[in-house]
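Budget justification note: compute hours in this period were largely spent on complex prediction jobs such as the one shown. Inputs:
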Amino acid sequence: MPPDLQASPFLSACRGEAVSRVPAWFMRQAGRSLPEYRELRGSGSILEAIARPEVACEATLQPVRRYGVDAAILFSDIVVPLHAIGFGVDVVPGKGPQIDRTFRSAADLARLRDLEPDDVAHVTETVRLVTKELTGTTTPLIGFAGAPFTVASYLVEGGPTRTFEKVKGLAHAEPALFAALTERLADIAIAFVSAQVAAGASAVQLFDSWAGALSPAEYERFSLPSTRRVMSALADLGVPRILFGLGTGELLDKMATSGADVIGIDWHVPLDVARTRVGGLPVQGNLDPALCVSNVDVALEATRDVLARAGERRGHVFNLGHGVLPSTDPGVLAEVVATVHAEGRAGVEATR
Amino acid sequence: MPPDLQASPFLSACRGEAVSRVPAWFMRQAGRSLPEYRELRGSGSILEAIARPEVACEATLQPVRRYGVDAAILFSDIVVPLHAIGFGVDVVPGKGPQIDRTFRSAADLARLRDLEPDDVAHVTETVRLVTKELTGTTTPLIGFAGAPFTVASYLVEGGPTRTFEKVKGLAHAEPALFAALTERLADIAIAFVSAQVAAGASAVQLFDSWAGALSPAEYERFSLPSTRRVMSALADLGVPRILFGLGTGELLDKMATSGADVIGIDWHVPLDVARTRVGGLPVQGNLDPALCVSNVDVALEATRDVLARAGERRGHVFNLGHGVLPSTDPGVLAEVVATVHAEGRAGVEATR
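Corresponding output:
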């Protein structure tokens, strides 16, 4: 770890250590809610922007400057490694990821070749640019990847879904094939995240965004094994591993057995309740992003509720319970960060 | 109650009594998954179809014939009473309810006038036609309405939403106005459901479909009071009152205090777990509709899992955990019903 990051409140909180202040960052903090981001992006596709390291670096750093958050998160997308190995995927504005040829049978496994570092050279170059810019600060860069189940849901459904009928159908009807698919996707995620850490990322988050579509028994069969595979392979990198999913109230106890160091909590489960379910692991969350849209007083009242539920116990990274909504006023998020820094007490050293 | 319905397995299960067989029906059983429904509906709007009692009656009865389910549910929509009082709403194919002028301020309360029985004469005529057709059977008709929070979410957002940012913003920023709104919607739901029961419906379901968008504290503030108002007003009707919402794992204990007689359980929470959360009330659910789409073996395995979790205890109405998906093969649902009837044991009399 770079010496400046020894004092990172974010990394300390992820390790359950005392902190100088409660750290805060926002999922999807680099994005459409920022006017400077909209100007930077223009009308090109997000995959084009990600492919340009100087653009991706700037998008990554904008929220750090704007909000004073305690971590940067790489401007990227969970389908980037699939795109890099030529699986045939695009991210269509307003529609999300779109798969050219959906995953249907064992023959499609051959289309998921290993990810080589050269495939994502643009991403590792972005990581190098960002971490160079952050040198001398206590702000680390978080790398990330999609968890195998969530990525598999796009491959099988062909795009975003509300019903998950195809991916569940495949998983139940052909569990061996689905296990092979998620194992391949785990290896791709491992290679992708390892490259980011080698280039300078100091923490990683695995987005199993759609895990909440699964029942507890399904989660145990169809997501947890490949998630464990990723977490286990990343253990030697020595960086905090965060696992996040939406609607995971029934799954938190199982997620806590994945090997993750920190469990992300959406806003459905109050933070104090969530904490008991993850068996004492550090937690990240859990302000409802919808409450940051319309009214700063509402946002700060909800922020204080999260802080109160976090209490004085160590191991809380403040965050939203899901990504920043595009309609969010950046000024509200800046006030949320200031409030967390001023009033948060979780693990804050008594000498402060 | 009509004498034939004394032997209704559905009504008995709702009361927690012994049954001759485990009753089953499916949310959205009348709908697009049935070819005879698609033929009946043609290309007109759903509100037009609902406005024609002979069409709505036929749509209501089609799944009873096709599946042998133990209850009919009125072919209707939760926005029907709003449409009937002239609030300005349409249901657009592929988009769902669309509100002409969204609810923004106290001035909009005046646009929510009382619902008079004459406003929904087409609905009560449908109820009369259906119950006449069902005379001599043990199959009751379930009437329904939208719960105030869920209906309010459409009025404030203007249509379906994934973020609920406007309705949550209004509820938090102007709680007195939001309480007045949901109280008005409660009174409309009470009038709507009471008219259906007066015309012959033998049970009612309140759809708080989007309750799961709320945290437990929000549910207690923004949905439970108006839900209680509805349940309390319906108590004297003497028919079972079912309360359903999606993604309600964290809310079930609170929903159980609403006055509802039966709690609907989606598929996220295993039925045996859900049962402990609702404190012994009868439950309805909880087969994942996505598992009925692709493969009959998958559907029946999941059906047997629900039956196993229901066990022998009284008070289980078999259902899906959400509505039938349009892509469902009706033949699969027929096999699900047959399996529930043949293998279900919850409350089945030992003399069977």
